[in-house]
Amino acid sequence: MTNEPVLETNETDRPRRSVSPYKAGIKSVCPHCAAAPLFHNILEVYETCPGCGFDLSAADPGDGAQVFVILVLGGLCAVLGFVLYGLLDMPIWALALTLGVFALIGSVWMLRVFKATLIALQFHHDARQGSVDEQKAKS
Ligand SMILES: [Zn+2]
């Protein structure tokens, strides 16, 4: 059995990948084969997939992942801080330590998941830079 995903064509003759972009994002794996890791080091995307050789150099999630992580993790930290300090009366030094560790670990994990999901969605929908068809523009 190979790791090659099943490619189907839909009505527009655009290949549809069998790998779910959300599953590939949660697992932080290649959006083409879902078997090899997407990142080396912590947050650097491979140029080509180490498992299937799929070209990942066009992957560009931009700042979208950071925006999602700031909004979601900021809200979670506010709720956690309210519960720990307001309801459980945790000392301020313990609160700062807890929220600091939570924010550090949570932001790295969420950045990997959100960045991998955005990259997988980009490949799943075949997103690319827009261009003008000169022949259609003239007519
Ligand atoms: Zn792959």
Largest sheet: 2 strands, antiparallel
Low-confidence stretches: 9-14
Major sheet: arrangement of strands: 1-2
Name the beta content range.
5-15%
Note the quaternary state here: single chain
Question: How many distinct domains?
Answer: 1
Name the shape in a single word: elongated
Radius of gyration: 20 Å
Portion of residues within helices: 40-55%
Secondary structure category: mainly alpha
Give the ligands present. Answer: zinc ion
Task: Give me the count of strands.
Answer: 4
Number of helices: 4
Q: Could you spell the SSE succession in H and E letters?
A: EEHEEHHH
What is the distance, rounded to the nearest whole angstrom, between the alpha carbons of the first and last residues?
Answer: 50 Å
Residue-averaged pLDDT: 85
Write structural notes for this entry.
The N and C termini lie far apart (50 Å). The chain has a two-stranded antiparallel ribbon with strand order 1-2. A two-stranded antiparallel sheet has the order 3-4. The protein has one domain. It has four helices and four strands, in the order ββαββααα. With 139 residues, it is mainly alpha-helical.
